[in-house]
From TrEMBL, chains A, B:
Gene3D superfamilies: 2,3-Dihydroxybiphenyl 1,2-Dioxygenase, domain 1. NCBIfam families: metmalonyl_epim. Pfam families: Glyoxalase_4. The keyword Metal-binding applies. It is an enzyme of class 5 (isomerase). Belongs to the methylmalonyl-CoA epimerase family. One of its GO terms (biological process) is L-methylmalonyl-CoA metabolic process. Transmembrane segments: none annotated. It comes from Caulobacter vibrioides (strain NA1000 / CB15N). SUPFAM superfamilies: Glyoxalase/Bleomycin resistance protein/Dihydroxybiphenyl dioxygenase. This is Methylmalonyl CoA epimerase. Its EC number is 5.1.99.1.
Length: 139, 139
């Protein structure tokens, strides 16, 4: 079912500070501007690597779902991991049929394709995002 | 400096159970056997994805460096992230020159090339592994 490791989601108290770290300390050369996703409660920015991406997420608004994570991990850290799938509904149905807890209905994610999240209790302690592979090559 | 996202290191109390999850729930089709790395204090196994890998690590021996992580995260979770670099000594020297804390001397990792770890306090809360890109295509 799962295809590429699309990205690792990394929570941070400050995307601006994280961008400096990736650029100045790790020498990353392709980093997008940040933008707000109010419906997800996060600011988002991507560090592009040759084969995958780091998705930096910073809380947007008081109801951001990552406040809890940052309270436990004030410096930030790995928040989720995202694998590509061909069809989000088929993936969701297959997981539910096997007893996994899928969080919410499929919705549009930061890459413009449908995503779901699977509960860490069923995923070896990791919050797993599944996303439909974008149809264009630029992702 | 950093190139590909070589792998995400995922700690687990049981590689056997994690393999079942990746195979039966997520449908991963290429998973290596596990092997012991006594000098690192871990059992290791790779879930191969088309563009990257998940490195499953389970404690080996009482002095395993991941007992602490599993005490805090009994189900396991994302433990480190590994980026490829061309030359480990140049990467180490550049990081040290910029004030980052590199853990130990370069040593051979699970892919047979030199690795270092960089302290999470300098890496946005993430334990970062840097590894020299393997010379062959099979990694």
């Amino acid at each position: 079912m799962i295809g590429k490791l699309n990205h690792v989601g990394v929570a941070t108290p400050s995307i601006d500070e994280s961008v400096k770290m990736y650029r100045d300390l790790l020498g990353a050369t392709s980093i997008t501007d940040k933008w707000a996703m109010p419906e997800q409660g996060v600011w988002v920015c991507f560090v592009n690597l040759p084969n995958s991406q780091i998705e930096l997420i910073e809380p947007y608004g008081e109801k951001s779902p990552i406040h809890g994570f940052l309270a436990k991990n004030p410096k930030g850290g790995q928040h989720h991991i995202c694998f590509e799938v061909e069809n989000i509904y088929e993936a969701r149905d297959a997981l539910v049929a096997k007893g996994a807890t899928v969080l919410g209905e499929p919705r549009i994610g930061a890459h413009g394709t449908l995503i779901i999240f699977v509960h860490p209790k069923d995923m070896g302690g990791m919050l797993v995002e599944l996303m439909e592979t974008p149809k264009d090559a630029h992702h």
